[in-house]
## 1
Amino acid sequence: MRRRRDDRPWIIAHRGASGLAPENSRQAFEVAIDVGADWIETDLRMTADGHIVLFHDDRVGAEQVSRLTLAQLRSRREAPVERWDDILPELAGRIGLDIEIKHPGFEAAVVASLKAEAPEGSFLVSSFDERVLRKVRRLDRSVPTGLILTAHGRGGRLLRGGRSACSLLRHAAADVLIAHAAAIGGRWASAVRRAGIPWHVWTINAPAQARQMADAGAWGIVTDRPDLILDAFPS
């Protein structure tokens, strides 16, 4: 994975520019590219008939996405439901890709497609689920991985300092921490920086907070509004 920029953190468009267009849609990704985002983040799930789709929630109403076919899923949504096999060729090489795998079971297909389509150094596989990251590491040690942290649980334990962060990374086979903004305080950022751990923060939509996270050492800022956050870092 590419190192932090010298002038500012990477600006990572959350589900594309989801504050400006429907999340995880072609439109959201194209807007992110147009406004100058460095990366996009998107969510992958697998449908009952084996399609990898860009979809955040695990349910549509009371129905689990994993138990719906692609056609059924699309019929229950007004917003677009994109297929990974269609979107990846359109984005690869144009913008960095932070690919969040939402559940185990299709890691090999994602890794194979990224290795075939996307330039080296232009993608990251992330997940809340450590099983996913360990599977990716077993499949191909060259694929960078990111462990996503909530404000509590693992994120809270990180407040104990850099040793805890290092332990989490090793256990999850991860290269980068992707922490919820509420988990980050001055002690957290200082400890992680002393340990030499790359970290991203989600989800930041206020320019002042983005500048604060940049000063704390964030490598990447995940945002619904890449246009606003980019304005916080005039070139």
## 2
Amino acid sequence: MKTYEVGDVLWIVSSSRPGIQAVRVTEELIKKTMSGTNTSYMVESAGSENKYYSLEKINGMVFKTSDEAKTHMLSSAEKAIDNMLTSQMTLVHQRWLKEKDKETVPVEKSDEYAYLDLENGQKAKIKLPPELGDLK
């Protein structure tokens, strides 16, 4: 667990909903037992007076600076946007670009003829006019 000093301002990025909360460490509690030492912290929120919370019970990621919290939030937002775009691009390809691909008919050319692949799997042989002969 990270260590903090009494008076430190910490930045909490919520795990349950989008948002950020500034808190100040008000107490450092050190409990020594036969099985070891446990350190916990009490914090107060910048948004509410005289309300104290156990830092370990707050649902979110703790950052020591606002810049670290901002970087994390921007990274998370970018990942979420990338996932949304990927999802929509997949739908566009499945729904609309597949239909567009079906409309494109591949053409093979040889000498005087062109061969078209039809949708039903058959090939059509078409004699090219002399002025189109240079498209081979």
## 3
Amino acid sequence: MRKVTLFCAAALFSLLSFAQDNNADIVKVGDSMPAFTLHSTVNGTVNSEDLKGKVVLINIFATWCGPCQSELAEVQKTLWPKYKDNKDFCMLVIGREHTDNQLTEYNKRKGFTFPLYPDPKREVTGKFASQYIPRSYLIDKDGKVISATVGYKKEEMDEVYIVYTRMERGMKEEVEVEQLLPLKTNQFIKEELVENVKKGKSNGTLEDFEGSDDYFVIYPSPKVVLNDLAYNYVTGFIYGALVEGFATEENARMVAMQAATDNAEAMLKELSIEYNRLRQAAITQEITEVIGGAKALKKKKMKKAKAGK
């Protein structure tokens, strides 16, 4: 079982926001493949006009994109070996905002055997979509888009955890690890119902709720309710974690600044005492020297006076 831990809640929040926004799509299913030309010093030039009569798979990626790496690794492992020798099939993997040299260095590490084409100014990828990667488009022999997907959807994550700091007290923070997905709806609903029974707020008994999951009805349907509930729960949980983390950071900053202020004041007090001590010693030394000089001068005058008599 694979587990994914989110150390940065904002990343997942952006993905959830992305799911609500389809404005980035330019080419959609049923549209014709836009005209384009790809140039690569390693793999040559490809013109969309030369692809007529072939099934074309276009993949848009970036070297910094984590899901892109997972998707390309799967393509290298399963898809490319199966179709690479098919003369009626063509696969174009396009590096968005990458140059030929960057893709060459990148492929030295990855070892992909399929061709990579650069698109440093989004002149080609910008005709398909304005943002969000990885993207894949399947075009039939007539040049029509028959499939368009965004993201890598292989179900390889069984659990998602979020790690954040929670402020326990003014001087103490606790690191919290909470399971975000999958939702354990029956668990927290049952806990709430059992708690209500203990407080006398429910007509049921503990045996009713602790021994069975058939204790509530969802209206109008579980699917309709969960469509809103799941999204609101996840985004609300992440927002709460962000607020807790922000409050903890600000509290830590405040404590650190207060400690620094106290240390500075203590240091200033010690330095002031030391300065006054040294200043007093210098004044005392000067007074001693003046008195000593005055005594010596007086003795000299007295000697001269005696000698004159």
